[in-house]
Design a protein that fits this description.
- By secondary structure, the chain is α/β, with parallel strands linked by helices.
- It folds into 3 domains: 207 residues, 3-Layer(aba) Sandwich (Rossmann fold), CATH 3.40.50; 84 residues, Helicase, Ruva Protein, domain 3, CATH 1.10.8.60; 70 residues, Winged helix-like DNA-binding domain superfamily/Winged helix DNA-binding domain (Arc Repressor Mutant, subunit A, Orthogonal Bundle).
- Helices cover 58% and strands 11% of the residues.
- Helix 8 links the parallel strand 3 and strand 4.
- The chain is globular.
Length: 386
């Protein structure tokens, strides 16, 4: 028996990984045959990072070198490429059970040039080349464009030298949009003529459109788009029932319906709700979870996330966007009704509605009608207003 029925936070693997088997199979098949690149789009907490982690796990089994980078970590273009090289060497050392390459590269960023040159010349090959590239960049003998070009040269040379195929996973890809557009153009040109394959993931519709979906965009039609929708009610019910059942706890159908209604198919939240209900049962000595237990668990979850939601609300959204979101806390609304409530003309709200949609804070259901994507956040807003 597993140690806990649910896993909350972090990368989620089987048996806790649920509901994305179809997407996992499609991506692994397409990447394994080197036939496609993929773009994964979804709102916060929809399971993008866990899907990527499971894709990585499956691809590693197929003898591919998987370089996984969270683009949030990079604040500059040069830092992004440093992270790519580090992740490449780290993945290779783990795959081949060798050591030393990553340490040599890291030392090149901080130690004396003379000592590093002696070490790297003993290693030779593509690693020697990329270390010398970063030494030149460190001494300001080349600019970021040349660094970018040579980093892609390294990936291709390393792939050929080691007899491996490379997959580059770029999570939160929209964070690279602030960099020089040269990066995207270079990525496109290299993807067209090398066997390196890409998996992009992001949560900003507008940036994704600018980079991938418009005919004039730099990576136009480079990747097959996959949107991660909320999980189906049946899958959530089956998963929670099965997980609690392993620990001798039953959950009735009204309770399961209430969980599904409250979290709206977002994986992180139903894992959290399952965990809270389990803890309630253990502490009270109960073997049956009912609807009242779910309501109590949900109230606890709102209290736990209150500080996070408050910070997000106050820092991510403008005053007008905050007013729109408050107006939408009661459920799906027509933009005309929101404008009337706020005492504004409908056309005044146009830009803010688009920005809220772009950030996946709200979604358009049909012409003129919208709803908040994160139902837990919506419930918090409702409580705050009341």
């Amino acid at each position: 028996m597993e140690k806990a029925p649910f896993q909350v936070g972090g990368h989620v693997y089987p048996p806790y990984f649920v509901g994305r088997d179809k997407e996992l199979e499609e991506i692994v098949r397409g990447i394994s045959t080197l036939s496609q690149n993929y773009l994964i789009i979804g709102p916060r907490r929809s399971g993008k990072s866990s899907l990527l982690a499971n894709v990585e796990s499956e691809l590693v089994k197929r003898d591919l070198l998987v370089i996984a980078v969270n683009c949030i970590e990079a604040t500059t273009c040069s830092e992004f490429f440093r992270i790519v090289v580090e992740r490449a060497l780290e993945a290779y050392e783990k795959k081949e059970r060798v050591k030393g390459l990553l340490e040599i590269f890291k030392r090149s960023l901080r130690e004396s040039i003379t000592g590093i040159i002696e070490r790297v010349e003993r290693v030779g090959g593509s690693v020697e080349g990329i270390v010398k590239t970063y030494l030149s960049f460190r001494e300001r003998e080349m600019d970021e464009h040349e660094l970018a070009k040579r980093t892609f040269d390294f990936l291709d040379d390393f792939r050929v030298e080691k007899g491996l195929e490379i997959v580059l996973i770029l999570d939160e890809f929209q964070d690279l949009a602030n960099f020089d557009g040269y990066l995207f153009r270079l990525m496109k040109s290299r993807a067209d003529r090398t066997k390196i394959r890409y998996i992009f993931s992001g949560s900003s519709i507008s940036i994704i459109q600018q980079v991938f979906l418009k005919p004039q965009s730099p990576l136009y039609l480079m990747a097959t788009k996959l949107y991660l929708p909320p999980l189906e009610t049946k899958k959530i019910k089956d998963y929670i029932s099965a997980r609690l059942g392993l620990f001798g706890i039953e959950v009735d159908d009204p309770a399961l319906e209430e969980i599904c209604r409250l979290v709206s198919g977002i994986p992180f939240y139903f894992q959290k709700m399952g965990d809270l209900c389990y803890r309630t049962a253990v502490l009270s000595g109960k073997r049956q979870i009912d609807r009242e237990d779910v309501k109590s668990a949900f109230a606890d979850m709102l209290r736990e996330f209150s500080t996070e939601f408050e910070y997000r609300f106050e820092t991510r959204f403008s005053p007008r966007q905050q007013a729109i979101l408050k107006a939408m806390a009661i459920g799906r609304r027509r933009v005309s009704a929101i404008a009337k409530e706020l005492g504004l003309a409908v056309n005044v709200l146009g830009k803010d509605m688009r920005l809220l949609c772009d950030s996946l804070a709200i979604e358009r259901l049909r012409r003129g009608e919208y709803e908040i994507v994160d139902w837990v956040f919506k419930s918090w807003l409702g409580d705050m207003i009341s």
